[in-house]
Each structure stands twice: as structure tokens, then as C-alpha cells.
């Protein structure tokens, strides 16, 4: 492997490493979306919520005299209460989730998030084996695992987006406003880095193609 090619692979793997960190943070955190109800009277308390793939957290916020009719921002001080979704932990109390969102959406997004982490683990194992035993061909399956992980993250993002949209549109909920938080941004960035990084790694790890009509693939530089 030439020095230029090795440098390209190292830079690509660094970008993929950043994507792995962002994907892991997104899956385990609970700041994908922030929901707030309408506030009719100020100088009272309201209850905002933020949630992720596994649990929902509500926060009781004391509203000051303001023209804003939404509850928040979520960064204001208040009493916080977090609970795992009931279908993941039957012993936990999560009535708010049972009323405000659909169980199928949450289970689907969480399951796809687990698949993405599994693909990341398999891809990382292939990369480590390729470096340790000088088997460059293992970078190709690793690149596909990383690209698949990126696609899974993208599907989780879309499922979460549809879940939030249906919560806001539902007449059975008190939420009127929402915005996507930093976990959602981490997931979007992870998708870009993992998917594009996986494709780039696949291209860089391929053997050199024949450059002249009389050459064959057997003439390409050997792999260890």
C-alpha cells in the first residue's frame, strides 16, 4: 500500500471514528426532541419534556411574566423526572409517553439504533484485524458495515421525526411546540460521516485498477 493511499485511509478512518462517537452519544442520550405545552397563565408552572430512544424526561418549570405562550426553554431550572419507556422497563412509570406517542415508533427507532451499534462494532473489529495482521482486504467489509450503520442511524432519525410530528398533530396530546435538540444533531452528523466515510473507505481500499490495456488486475500492487 502506497503512503498516499495509507494517508487517505487514515484520514477516512478518523472521520469514521468521529461518526462512531456521535452515533453512540445519540443512541444513549435522551435529547432528541423537546416538547412544550401551551401556557395560558404566566407566573405559574408548566411541564416541558425531552426524550430519546429509551426514556423521557419531564421538567416542571416556573414561568416568568413573558409574552411567550410556550413552556421553556428546557434549560430553565426546575424539578426533573426521568423514566424509561414502559415497554422497555415495565416497572417504570411513563404514562406521559403512553399518551403522547406511539409504542411502535419508539420500539422501531430503538431497535434500528441497536442495529447501527452492532454494525459499528463489526466494522471496528474488521479494521483492528486489518491493522494487526496486515490484511488490507478486511477494510472492504468494514467500510460496508460503517455505511450500513449510517443508514440505520438515518432511518432512526426519520422514525423519530415522524413520531414527533404525530405527537404534535394528535388531539390527545398537550404539546403544541417542539424542536430537535443536540442528540438529533449528533445522529444527523453521524449519518453523514459514517455513510460517506464508509463509501470513501471502500473506494480507497480497492486494489489499483489496470491503467494500460496490456495490464491486468494481477499486475496491481500486492496486498499484505
For the largest beta-sheet, the strand count, sense and barrel status come to: 5 strands, antiparallel
Judging from the principal axes of the Cα atoms, what is the shape? elongated
DSSP helix fraction: 40-55%
**What fraction strand?**
5-15%
Number of helices: 5
The termini sit apart by 8 Å
Radius of gyration computed on alpha carbons: 23 Å
* Overall pLDDT: 78
Number of strands: 5
Element string (H = helix, E = strand): HEEEEHHHEH
Sequence stretches where pLDDT stays below 50 over 5 or more residues: 91-101
Biggest sheet: strand arrangement: 4-3-2-1-5
Secondary-structure-based class equals alpha+beta
Question: Would you spell out the secondary-structure blueprint of this structure?
Answer:
Elements: H1 3-28, E1 33-37, E2 45-51, E3 55-62, E4 78-84, H2 95-100, H3 103-132, H4 139-169, E5 175-180, H5 182-205
Antiparallel strand pairs: 1-2, 1-5, 2-3, 3-4
Helix pairs in contact: 1-3, 1-5, 3-4, 4-5
Amino acid at each position: 500500500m502506497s503512503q498516499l493511499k495509507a494517508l487517505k485511509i487514515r484520514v477516512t478512518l478518523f472521520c469514521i471514528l468521529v461518526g462512531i462517537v456521535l452515533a453512540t452519544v445519540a443512541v444513549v442520550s435522551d435529547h432528541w426532541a423537546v416538547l412544550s405545552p401551551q401556557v395560558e397563565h404566566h407566573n405559574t408552572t408548566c411541564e416541558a419534556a425531552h426524550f430519546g430512544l429509551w426514556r423521557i424526561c419531564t421538567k416542571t418549570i416556573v414561568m416568568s411574566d413573558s409574552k411567550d405562550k410556550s413552556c421553556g426553554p428546557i434549560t430553565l431550572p426546575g424539578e426533573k423526572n426521568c423514566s424509561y419507556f414502559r415497554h422497555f422497563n415495565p416497572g417504570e412509570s411513563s404514562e406521559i409517553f403512553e399518551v403522547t406517542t406511539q409504542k411502535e415508533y419508539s420500539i422501531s427507532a430503538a431497535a434500528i439504533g441497536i442495529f447501527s451499534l452492532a454494525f459499528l462494532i463489526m466494522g471496528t473489529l474488521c479494521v483492528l484485524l486489518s491493522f494487526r495482521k496486515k490484511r488490507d482486504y478486511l477494510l472492504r467489509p468494514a467500510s460496508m458495515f460503517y455505511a450500513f450503520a449510517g443508514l440505520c442511524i438515518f432511518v432512526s432519525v426519520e422514525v423519530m421525526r415522524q413520531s414527533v410530528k404525530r405527537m404534535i398533530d394528535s388531539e390527545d396530546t398537550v404539546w403544541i411546540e417542539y424542536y430537535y435538540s443536540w442528540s438529533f444533531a449528533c445522529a444527523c452528523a453521524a449519518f453523514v460521516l459514517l455513510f460517506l466515510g464508509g463509501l470513501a473507505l471502500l473506494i480507497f481500499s480497492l486494489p489499483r485498477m489496470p491503467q494500460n490495456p496490456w495490464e491486468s488486475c494481477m499486475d496491481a500492487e500486492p496486498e499484505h
